[in-house]
## 1
Amino acid sequence: MATVAEKYLLKALAAFSHRCVIVTPELKILALRTRDGGEPSAVQGQACHEVLFHADSPCHDCGALEVLRTGRAAIRRISPAGEAAGRTTQRHFFSLKDEGKIIALACLDAEVQYPRGLSPELTGADAFLNNLIMSSVDGIIASNRKGRILIFNEAAAKITGYGQEEALNGLDIRLIYPGDGAREVMRRLRSDEHGGRGKLTPTRLDLLAKDGSLVPVSLSASIVYEGGREAATVGFFRDMRERIRIERELQEAQVQLMQAEKMSSLGKLAAGVAHQLNNPLGGILLFAQLLTEDYNLEDRARKDLERIIEDAERCKHIVRELLDFARQTTVEIRPNDLNQAISRVIFLLENQPLFKRIEIVRDFDPDLPKVPCDLQQLNHVFMNIILNAADAMEGRGRLTIKTYQAPQGDRVRVEIADTGPGIDGQVLPHIFDPFFTTKEEGRGTGLGLSVAYGVIKNHGGRITVCSAPGEGTTFVIELMLTVASGGEGLG
């Protein structure tokens, strides 16, 4: 039998002129009271979103689900037709518990009257401001002095990986900054050096996303004051990931362009020097041969002249190789013999002082098919990797160059392995980065491997490296036997 207090509570509920809904934790209707006081029983056991909103799933911003998740009451503001007359409606959600366990959820609509003359303007401004914040392409996050988040728009959710409700219902603003980042931002806001006290001009920093990754952003922020005291802070976060990616690609393109110009200049210089050397070399050969033909020389003198002729012929061969190496000035993709190309590079290098104590092992596949490529560009790639290997071995060791057709049959591989000291694991991921070098200042630009990577990628191929300290280094170059479209890499 109901107590007097319970009877009065039931009478108050019966007199309630707004909608009241009681649902189970599974959102099934237990009781429904409409605005006109009706109590339809036919809807009991049905999902509230199906009956009230004709939806197949719970509302996107369901207050009942928030109560279940947080254990706290929730409020939602709705937009009734009477809003223009100075009224608005709030929907209150709270739990009904038995021995500390939620057994049901209640939803009550309550009308709120705003002061006459202010409601339309304030309501309209509030809606406009909310739309402005939510539609901003930059992340907008506001928090109070304790770090509780008050505003968290969709862009902020995309940047950080936190859901909007998740952020508004317990995320501390300090958790999205790595280390002591939040304290540093507040220090700058309170100083006069970064846009004036209470303001922070655009500053590059990293945010800590929900998955633990660091997201580069540009942050503009300000302190919100009430009565001259700090009440809150608001930050505008611009995601810089795409911009940084574009900047990196532009930088790599500029580096490759600079390197191409450099190699073009070197090619022209080599061609000019080679032409100038050809004339005196021709004279040396001509007069040496005349001496052997026109004079009856003793054996020692004849052998000396033959040595002169032999060395002059070798010089002419080297000059011819330099001319072939430097002749091409435009990109030309056509089938080429990689064995022959690598042999030519080795010929130009093997008698250099740096290679005197290096054993060069050639392991070429004699049946290697021709590869469509720009031979001039690949010559530079092979030369750069071989020179790096010789430099790493400090002129002493074994250099093994192997060519073969990959098991897939659609590509060939070139392996260049040295017996040098190897590459440290922390350095290995960066060796193809532009301007990255471990050499002493003045001994390297950090461009060689970056350009090599770009050349192979533009050929639709792939270049990888395998190395460990004390175990030497092996570069593996893969090139397709068919021309790839758009410079796509290997899968």
## 2
Amino acid sequence: MTVRTRFAPSPTGRLHVGNARTALVAWLHARKAGGAFVLRLDDTDAPPEAEAHAEAIFRDLAWLGLDHDRFERQSARVDRHGEAIDRLKAAGRLYPCYETPEELELERRARLSRGLPPIYDRAALDLTEHDRARLEAEGRAPHWRFRLDDAPIEWTDRVRGPVRFAAADLSDPVVVRADGRPLYHLGSVVDDIDLAITDVVRGEDHVANTAAHIQMFQALGAEPPAFAHLPLLVDADGKALSKRLGSLSLEALRDEQGIEPEALVALLARLGTADPVEPIADRQVLIEGFAFERFSRAAPRFDPAELARLNARILHEMPFAVAEHRLADLGLGDVDAAFWAAVRPNLEVLADAADWWRVAKGPVTPAIEEPDFLAEAAEALPAEPFDGETWGAWTAAVKQATGRKGKTLFLPLRRALTGRDRGPELAALLPLIGRERARRRLLGETA
């Protein structure tokens, strides 16, 4: 059977790192198996701004490089959901309920006060035809619940291992609203059947949902897919990320923090596994190394500081051919491989390259503390052309003429040439600055 995974976000907000990890793991599994990755928008209950959110989802997944083989909108499949609803009603697996949200909340609290699990008590199953007619005459439209069988629900999870639920410990899930629209549970199961999904990757907060879904698959005459429930991400202190998802949206990471997609993918692909997190930009390496067996059940820690360090390492190893068009987008002019080789070891985000371009091409206000020494150094500047050997030859001459060495030689030169205390190797930077610009800076002129 061809492996088919899916990522099914709701267009109700921006994708965050938790969503990205789920999508990435599903994508890696599909690509490792030579299968298909399906993108499905679960948009049957979408807000007015849903289309803007959908466009952002497309943009985020494209940025991550997670291409899909098929795209579906759940809202285009309401007829199929309706057919499934009718079929389950006819089989007696759906039953009408008339409680209001307030009544359900009171019942939940009452059960908790008696030390009982806060699950639905199936009171609606005791209603007679007369009772239902009376409630509907009062203006109450029923919502519909899926009646779970009493048999144990078991499956072998790709991450959690053997999982077992007693159906009596679960509430019969509401699957159809009072207005007739299907809720997440039923729509998801029907779509997974019709799209021939073989593997479902989701967060461990959906484990109880999966137990109910398995019976829905069976009630509709379908074999349930395999399931992989990933532990939810926590922060560096072990706390759930849910309070911080705004700053960890893909949009914020990309547009505000300058994170490279390769850095985020490299981190998320191995987070929660025993494999080392490394600056791997080649997706094929990650695909070939993927296996569900490598994931631990422990909650993995997502540390933005680790992501920042990995981002810098990705940039430090990025070839000029990859960076060239990105540098052009920064408006840096005629950037060449020599500039990239000079500055990339000092980058934390790509936008830092613009700062070093200004250092190379000016104007820079030099930091002048010893004008006499710097004037003497300016006199010793060799003729052009400058190359990778110029810095060593020039500083050797200045050392010979002044007797200076070490920090007392190099730091004043760096401050005058760049206006900074640290940065790229001056052996690589000096040819970019050029003789005339270097001379003027040494003499205290902005250039």
## 3
Amino acid sequence: MNVSQLVDQFLQGLKQTTWLEYIAVFSGIASVWYSRKENILVYPVGLISTIIYIYISFKGSLFGEAGVNFYYTVVSIYGWVLWTKKAEDNSRMIKITSATGKDWLGHVAFFAACYTIAFFALTFLKKQFAPGAIPAGDGFASAAAFTGMWLMAKKKVESWYWWIATNVASIPLYFIKGFAFTSVYYFVLLVMAFWGLAAWLKKARERNLQPFTN
């Protein structure tokens, strides 16, 4: 496929964008903005996007992404509860922190387990009744997102690295499926993820934390 064909496919995809997809995209962008600011609105606003994307992903045979958004929905409620908890001095109970070397091993193991399960599940679905499924790419994006969302709920700086990986994998996935606007959305999220990472690293340093050390 040459550049001209890619552009034509992109423009055609934009024409097919539904109002639901627009709502999901803009609420998702707003959610990432709030997460960067460490604002509790990240969760209620994000829930609008994740619920819509469950439907959109099923429609495009992106079952891994559908599972991810269902997971987002559940963990968003969990994170919402964690982020609202207050200590005795009325400060936030959960604060932005960085992972230790041991934590990183746990994160990678969690990702590997999620990817293995997602890959084999999607491979089965592809053979049985979903020929449009993309096990390797969808599985990778799903596993990275599972990891990122879990760490985001715990306010770990490293959650942004997993969001970056998720966005990189999701851009071509949705483009291939004809969701051009969502593909652009993930590109925007990719840029915002670097922005969010910088903001959280700064906050971690301000608390005299040393990222990536034991």
## 4
Amino acid sequence: MNAALRFIREWYSIPLLLIVWQLSVSSGLVASRLLPDLTTVVGALTTDLLNGVLIRHAGITIGRSLAGFSMAVVIGIPLAAAMARSPLFSRLVEPSFFVGYPIPKIALFPIFTFIFGLGTPSKIAFTFLECLYPIVITTYLGIRSIQANWIWTAQNAGATRSQIFKRVLIPASLPSIVAGMRIALPIAITIVVVTEMIGDSAGLGYYITSFSTRFRYANVYAGILVIGICGFVLDYAIVLARRKLVYWEGNDRSES
């Protein structure tokens, strides 16, 4: 019973949103042509899932998103660690990151398409750039916030620089690293979908654009729902990984 009550308390907003959606359409408050009722959207969603169209487009979008995101994680975490541990490297790189962070990277997309073309490589490269900033900055700030006496204790115990990095810096900064990953992952999906809308012949962004030009909004909302579901599943996977990796902090509600 407690588990059921907790589940309802945490997730009641989703069915509530769906009820508001249905009531808005059935009452005539919103035109059904712009916002189809739930049964129509679910019908379009079911049809394109069963015939494999949505699965194929979703697979392309998620594959591109995870490729760019993974590259940002692999490169961003060591880069942030180097910034945090080397004053010389920090003075060289940190100003560029903090100045470039608020700049809208979409302005660079024409350059990426010129270099890599309109296909998958340009979308992966652009996603990598967008994800790199939150991962580097959160990891950098996480390592910088580590208490100095932890490092001194490891040094007094005879730990080498690599051992301090592996056994002190990385574990202590894991909450910040995971937080940066949770910020970057939806950014990755958003960037891929937007760039697919700009120019592509596959992916969920193309799927949504294709049906919106034909005024088939039930399919448009079906594509949007698939994006939301994919984002939720991937984020929850990171939450589960966090519970295993940062086990000493427990499982508070903010992770749910």
